[in-house]
Amino acid sequence: MPKEETEEYLEAVLDLSGEEGAAKTTDIAKRLGVAPASVTEVLQRLAKDGMVRYRPYRGAFLTEKGRRAVGRLKRKHRLLEVLMTKVLRMAPQSAHKEACKLEHALSDDAENALCRSLGAPGSCPHGSPIPPCELDVGSCAECESGDGSAPKKVARRVIPITSLKPKAMGRVAFIRGGRSVVRRLSAMGLTPGTEVTVLRAAPMSGPLELRVRGCNLAVGRGIADKIFVEPEGSAAT
Amino acid sequence: MSCRGNKAKVRADMSCHGMNVGSSGDCDAVVALVGNANVGKSAIFNQLTGLEQTVGNWPGKTVERAEGLLFHNGVRLRMVDLPGTYSLSTGTAEESVAQEYLLSGAADIVINVIDATALERNLFLTLQLIETGIPVVAVLNLTDAARQRGIRIDVRKLGMLLGIPVVETVAVHGRGIHELIDEAIRLLKKGTRSRRTVRYGPEVERAVTGLEALMRRGKRSRWKALRLLEGDAGLSRRMRQKHPDVVERASALSLELGDHHGEPASTVLASERYAVAGRVAREVMHVSSAINGRGAEMLDRLSLHPVLGYVLMIVVMLAILAFISILGGWIAQGIERAFESANPRMDGFGPGLLWNGAVVGLYSALGVAFGFLLPFYLILSALENSGYLPRIAFLMDRPCHLMGLHGKASVPFIVAFGCNVPACVGCRIIETKRDRLIATFLSTLIPCSARTIVILGIVGTYMGPLWAISIYIIDFLLILAIGRILNATVKGRSVGIIMEVPPFRKPVPRLLARQAWARFRPFLVMAVPLIVLGSTVIEGLRLAHAMDELTLWMSPMTVGWLGLPAFTGVLFLLGILRKEAALVFLAAVAGTVDIAAAMSPVQMFVFALVMTIYIPCTATIAALAREVGWKNTAIITFSEIGLALLVGGITYRALLPFI
Description:
With 237 residues, chain A is of the alpha+beta class. Chain A has helices at 3-16, 25-32, 36-48, 64-87, 92-102, 108-117, 140-145, 179-187, 221-224, and strands spanning 52-55, 59-62, 159-160, 169-175, 195-201, 208-212, 215-219, 227-231. Chain A has three domains: 3-62, Winged helix-like DNA-binding domain superfamily/Winged helix DNA-binding domain (Arc Repressor Mutant, subunit A); 67-131, Iron dependent repressor, metal binding and dimerisation domain (Diphtheria Toxin Repressor, domain 2, Orthogonal Bundle); 159-231, Roll (SH3 type barrels), CATH 2.30.30.
């Protein structure tokens, strides 16, 4: 099965899976414009590859592996959108269509080079957040200043701290963003590996109040979006 | 142990900014006070120096600088209160001030104030201070608050582990201050530096040793090496001249370290330093259950509650606004009445100039200073010291984003409704120079109580409240628009909020009064003469009958463009001095008490609108000059004149067909 088709299916599963996590076969078929029978066939194949868990009559949900693959795809898609709107000055609508096609062709190296040259954007032109890269770097500043040699890849589940529920705890994985922000945060005790608890979030997506090393810290939403943590337990939303 | 010699340069910096305390700056030693924000550093400073202190700015920066003298058993110590900082390596304005000062060698010893309730984070800075190689004495402050939270700290062990003397204090009650002074003087005599500097990982240590060798183990070479590895832009700029090889090598090593650890070198060093701080803190700290603090916790939850937090904030802010407006008006009137009762009422150019120019200028300046500014300083100090300020900033961060600013701007904005002068000064609480400039600009556009008098007295009285409100709405839209424009045009980018939310603390009135007075005094010295001068000049013009000429000269603008009667020119000139003067003199220059007979409704509306926007009053201009410099003050003043003319002219033409 071509890579592009696999990826389309994974995206459909992610988008269509609801609260319980299962995407129905009929919905996928409708969305992709194919027969339900062939959907079942593809899902079974994806299940064999470990991308989804498939239950007949209930549908499919993404495994950790599948989730990562889709996250990567979304990242490519949104980075491409940023490229096309910001650099090539295309309209967001056509940028989206273009990105839908190109996302499948973009290599991982090109993806990370794109991230670097665009200054590690935090969100796509439509406002959706861009998932972090999987490179083993402490922050984007470092990636930007690197000598171009490829950092090693790691598999870890990191989410922005803004996705943690109040009272939930996480460990700082890395911090995106400019040098000065990274430094100010680390001076306040937010260094990689540090335990952080989200105390509360101000309304209207205002700042977060965090508890770090026995002190309370308010961090604006824009900055908090760039702090990535490994959630402790099943704290993620 | 002398203040001269290598400190001559620093001393020269001080004297040219009028920062000298006492005679020609003679003292036996210089002691720098360093610590995180909100640790009671200024309380310790106040306890050490009493009223022998001056507050000003660091050269070229709007970072508050306080200095004072301490006499003890015949020893004269100069205390320099460095700005509150969490680290010496992140490059904010506060930190670069602290770092450059320590690097200059001006301080003989450092007093490091530590918050006992947040030991780990405070020790991060302590470890950096020890790295500087300057003798350090640590002050464990807020020990009473720590005890309430069930935290007990083994002071002797802490001193042993850090290799420096440690003194326990409760600064607000003056407890432990004598011991601190004794310990500081003992340290000055011995001059011992701690040997227990942080040992970093092998790669870092190897890099440091290499750099130190390149520097031939000069003064503070270890510190400089570490700072260069962390990528300190300021230091490498300064060292590039003499030691280009060191700087080059350091940046190469820094990259190598980053590659090896998969994190930037600065993060590696911070992590390792924090690891040590955490280890020390765990070894000396014993935590049992908190004794009390339920009340403080309740207040904490209330103040940050998504609904009640805003209610509380609005109540507090309205109370402050009412307090400043009512008390301010009352005090200002009292001062005016006291002066006017002594009015000799003499005619002639000389006496007229002296009284209506200089004396009236003097009492209106004193009215603003004592009526509005001093009370505001008291309130600002109370908000800061109690810990409520960061909570307001937390709640208001998002709304402030509409103007491209962050939460801390909300306090000066609210105060500005009372008086723009304290608002300009209050913008100091915003960290970056850029955001501070924008906030200062915008706060001068907020209708203060004097402008409210004009709006209500003319438009409100003759045209009705809806028209008065629409002036406010136009003004607010303008503020929003200007905020957006400034954000897009002023260089740099607004960094979001990163701030500590300290626990609530009960402020101590005596310390608040001292702090407020020390901040207030420079305004009194600088702005009052300026206002008197401005007032005298305008009165001189009036007495020389130059006003009529000026009115004529202004008529293309006032009559031609704004469609106002010619006599309003005089009012605009008087309004520069005091905005409410425009209303006071309106009847006199119009030649009738019935304003409706002298002006059409459109004219009233345009007049009040232009009056609201067109220029900050002299007191505000004086405050602006102190806060953002004369160049920016000129830019703000002239762009507001332009803005007022633009908006006024458009409004006139837009309203003419309707009313």
